[in-house]
Amino acid sequence: MADDALPEELKGRFVDEFPIVVEGLVNRFGTQTVHDNLSLEVRQGEILGVVGGSGTGKSVLMRSIIGLQRPNDGDIRVFGKSITEAEPDEEIGVRSRWGVLFQGGALFSTLTVGENVQVPLKQFYPEISKELLTDIARYKVMLSGLPEDAADKYPSELSGGMKKRAGLARALALDPELLFLDEPTAGLDPIGAARFDQLTRELKETLGLTVFLITHDLDTLYEICDRVAVLADKQVIAVGTIPELLETEHPWIQEYFNGPRGRAAQASQKRDKRKAATSSSRSMDNRPPKRA
Ligand SMILES: Nc1ncnc2c1ncn2[C@@H]1O[C@H](COP(=O)(O)OP(=O)(O)OP(=O)(O)O)[C@@H](O)[C@H]1O
After folding, report:
1. Taking the complete model, does pTM exceed 0.95, yes or no?
2. How far apart are CA 51 and CA 30, in angstroms?
3. How would residue 189 be classed by pLDDT, with cut points 50, 70 and 90?
4. Which terminus of the chain faces fewer neighbouring Cβ atoms within 10 Å, N or C?
């Protein structure tokens, strides 16, 4: 629901509760319609997984929300500000409140990791001194789980997993409230992917982020997503927790979550939960007796 349609006293609350609101989105490329009347609300503080078959328009949706793709129709509001009405470069006070990790990291190859992280800082805060820029960039590099000396390396000197973390460091440069991640675990080995998931969850919790996460990775969905939005038939056909989605009868959803890979991810999550429960009950058993 657009904020404008709400009574005055509810507007602020709605914006606080749903930092991203997409209504009636239409995106076309020539004769191809990618989105047709697509709507979605992202809740404050959640990790929303966005899934759908290849070419269903997940990246186009993300690009529309961050103003890189001008939709043919519809309304997109971020923190209550209309992205669709704004000019691409217009200062509307929200662009510095989000960070984006594009597919593949999208780092500038001629800049070091530290310099890459400084790019958004220089853009939004040109007055910051060189020394402070260097310090902030190093802090963001470490926050993303990279060693401090990675700040001085060029993207070509990094592994695939390190590049993702460097892209994440740049996405975190401006202390964003919203984090957009486009297939962050694609191309990572399972251990690297699990570590990246863990990092995303920790950052979300410690920094209070709201995360819009496009993924094909079922383990990521099970492990860290609070809700999942499913794109199919040019729209968001369902949004909810995985158990809620499993109750819907849409064939794509059933095939996706109940296919062999979906069942494996489900089983692995159950195993992890059992392990966590066993180790926590063991650690309770090992507690020193309470003093009288
Ligand atoms: N700039 C563009 N010009 C023309 N067509 C485009 C453009 N950007 C995207 N498309 C088309 O829009 C459709 C959706 O693309 P998008 O990249 O959003 O898919 P996706 O769901 O993210 O796919 P994947 O899971 O494979 O990454 C595709 O058919 C794509 O070819």
Report:
1. no
2. 24
3. confident
4. C
Which atom of ligand 1 is nearest the CA belonging to 27?
12
* CA 57 to ligand 1: nearest atom: 18
Report strand pairing: 235-240 vs 98-101.
unpaired
**Which residue among 38, 56, 59, 102 is best mutated to probe the pocket of ligand 1, counting the most ligand atoms within 8 A of its Cβ?**
59
Beta bridge mates, 82: 77
State mean pLDDT over 30-41: 96
Alpha-carbon torsion (208, 244, 101, 259), positive or negative: positive
Q: For 200-213, write each residue's pLDDT tens digit.
A: 999 999 999 999 99
What residues contact 219, with CB distance under 8 A and at least 6 apart?
190, 193, 194, 197, 265, 268, 269
Least confident stretch, 61-75, 91-105, 209-223: 91-105
Q: Examine the predicted complex and report whether its ipTM is higher than 0.95.
A: yes
> Does residue 60 line the site of ligand 1, with CB under 6 A?
yes
Residue nearest to atom 3 of ligand 1 (CA): 29
Which residue in 109, 97, 234 sits closest to 172, CA to CA? 97
Pocket test for ligand 1, best of 38, 58, 63, 231 (most atoms within 8 A of CB): 58
Q: How many angstroms is it from 59 CA to the middle of ligand 1?
A: 7
Percent of the chain past pLDDT 90, that is, above it, reads: 60
